[in-house]
Structure formats: structure tokens, C-alpha cells
Amino acid sequence: MIKTGQPQQLLMIKYGELGLKGKNKNLFIRQLVQNIEQAISDLPSRKVRSTRGRIIVPLLSADELSPLRERLSRVFGIYAICPVQFATKELPQIQKTALRVLEQALPAGGEFKVESRRADKSFPLISPEISREVGNYIFEQTGDKYTAQMNHPKNILQVEVRDEAAYVYCGSWPGAKGMPVGTGGRAVVMLSGGIDSPVAAWLAMKRGVTVQAVHFESFPFTSERAQEKVMDLARKLSCWQNGEFKVHCVHFTEIQKAIHAACPEEYGITIMRRFMFRLAEKIARSNAGLAIYTGESVGQVASQTLESMYVINEVCRMPVMRPLVGFDKEEIMARAKQIGTYDISIRPYEDCCTVFLPAHPKIRPRLAEAQAMEAGLPVDELLEQALAATKTWLATPEGVSVL
Ligand code: ATP
Ligand code: MG
Predict the structure, then answer these.
(1) What pLDDT, in 10s, does the model give residues 128-155?
(2) DSSP string for residues in 100-126
(3) Is the pLDDT of residue 223 over 90?
(4) Pocket of ligand 1 (CB under 6 A)
(5) Nearest-ligand number for the alpha carbon of 322
């Protein structure tokens, strides 16, 4: 029960629970509350409460609205964030609160509609009656300042009567949607410094998956600046994953040199990518990962034809997830801009794929040929050496450190 003397403004979080039942639903809500607490942990502490179907975040002062909005907009699982005022569950209190909310939202008057929702079925008025009583009260108190617009209302004054209190609000902010990070298992994402793979990582997180990155670097052919770029991407992505994102940096130079020396140039990319997937799978396994995510999209480059993917994918048994598979480049770029990775991705440093790029990569490689070429390479030894030289970093929004 809400007591008087508490602040009158709160944030009410709506989440998508469609299709979730019983145990799954509780796990979802518990993880979401934990992620919300983590997202706002640098702000003055407060008790985040989970009520039936909603999560309530108390507001300590009006100045907190914008920092809270910023942080909560990066928590997956939230559908909408509603700045609400609450009232005790008596009609006169609800009416007064509704008038105050409307006057704050539309100080100069205007059109509106009241919509009500009675989650507490013991409340004596049904939803349309609540709306009518609230609307009538507003007209009585304000004359012709406000008018009702029932068909296409621009402003909806919402009243929710729940078990513990009534909440009134006008307008809400969109959430990131998806599932809370931590509810979807673990995976690795192959993270280059490009535009696509950070978006793939973000889409994995959006479905609740906790991801760690595997990045292949070819020092000294790739510069420290290239690694810095990947770390900056990782820091950005960590904001969507409870402030933590691990990056395994694999020293890939010796493998590339060995391929370059032993295999026909046109198969260079195919074989290099077979090595990448083998390593990504090993790193996933040693970190309890169950899948590999990549930023591939069919047809984008030579290594992303179906024929290439078939030959490359053959080396791993783990599911390979390609969340961008049907996206056009413009769609990927738009999403990268929205999540804040685009400006980092377009910095001009070279990637290990471009260092040994053949003039005419094979667009339709054949599995038997790739396998025959690899027969001349000490595959296991090369993999082991690369893993032994792998360094793991932890990226947080503030910076990175070696683990
Ligand atoms: P991106 O924008 O993600 O770099 P891309 O269009 O440049 O993608 P490719 O270079 O063919 O495509 O790479 C396809 C995918 O392989 C990438 O999305 C990424 O998942 C993975 N990848 C490529 N290079 C690296 C790397 N150096 N380290 C880790 N993963 C890589
Ligand atoms: Mg790339």
C-alpha cells in the first residue's frame, strides 16, 4: 500500500510478457528488476518494486527524469516507461490527480481522452465508469479549457487502478523492447570493427542473450588504433548488457601467414573464415556459450554467398546465428546510428580481413577443395597457438581492462 508522505511521482515500467507463463515469467521479471537496478545503480539508491504486471521505480526528484529515461531506455525487456502520479484508490483522489496530470501535460488546454484500466477487479467502478467520472470532473473544474476527442485523440490521459494504488499519466517513453539480458543463455559474437557485427551483437542482447565478443587481430598488420576501435564498440555495447562486455582478442597473424603461404590466393578468405569459426566455437565452449553470432548478411561480400557460408559453416557444430541475414546495408546502418556504434565503426582503421584480401576471392568455393588445401596445414597446432595468445578484456561504459 502506498503511504502519504512518499513522493507523488514514479516511473511505471511496462514490460512485454506475452507468451510467458509460470516459472519463465518469474525468471523474466526477476532478471528485469535486477537489470533495472543495475542500470540506475550510479544514481541515488531507491527500492525498485515489482507489482503485478508492472515495475515501479520511485523518483527522488523531478531532476532525475532525464537521467532515468536515458538509462532505462537501454534496458531490454522494457516496453514503455510511463512517468506517473499516484493516488490512493478513492475516486476523488483519482479525479484530482488526473486533473493535475492533465494540466501539467497540456497547460494551455486542448483535446484529450481518458482511458482507464481496472487491474484491481474489486474496485467498485468498471473501466468506462472511471473514465466517465474522471472526464466529467475535469470539465466541471476547467470549463471549456479542455475538450473530449474520442476518435483520434492526440493526448490520452490514462488511469490504471492496480492492487496497491491508482496511477495516472499522460504520455510515455518507448522502451528498448526485447527480453531482459540474462534470460536467453550465453553466446559469442564475432566482432570486427565494421558496421554490421556490433548490430548483430545488439540484436543478440535484445533477445536476452548474454554475449561475449571474439575479435581477430593481425598485429602488426593491424594497428593498435584498430584494436582501440573494437574496444570503443565494446564499451558502447556494454551499456546494453548491464555495463559489462567481454572481448577475447585472438592473435590471428600466424594463421593468416600460414594460409597465405600454403593456399591458393582465391581461397584465402574461405579458409581464413573457417579458422575464425573454429576458434569462435572453442572460445564459446570454454565460456559456456551455446551459439555464435555474426554480422553476415547474404550476398554482401564474396564470403557471404550461400556457397561460401556453406563451406565455412561446415567447421562448426554450434548453431551460427546471423541476425542481419535479411537486412540491407542501409537498414543495418540506420540501426547502428540508433544504437551509437556507427560513428565508431566508420573510423578508417583496417581489419584483419582486409590485410590479406585477395584480388579475386572465390565466390563459389567448394568444400572438397577447401578441405584438401587445409590438409597441408597444421590446423590443430595453429588453433592452439592462437588460443594461447588470446587476451581477454572487460569493457564497461567507463573503460576497458585486461582480465
Ligand atoms: P562487419 O561490418 O561486421 O565487419 P563485413 O560486412 O565487413 O561485416 P566481413 O568482413 O565479411 O563482413 O565479415 C563478416 C562477419 O565476420 C562480421 O560481421 C563479423 O561477425 C565476422 N568478422 C569479420 N572480421 C572479423 C574480425 N576481425 N574479428 C571478429 N569477427 C570478424
Ligand atoms: Mg568486416
Answers:
(1) 999 999 999 999 999 999 999 999 999 9
(2) HHHHHH-TT-EEEEEEEEE-STTSSS-
(3) no
(4) 190-192, 194-197, 214-216, 294-296, 300-301, 303-304, 351-353
(5) 1
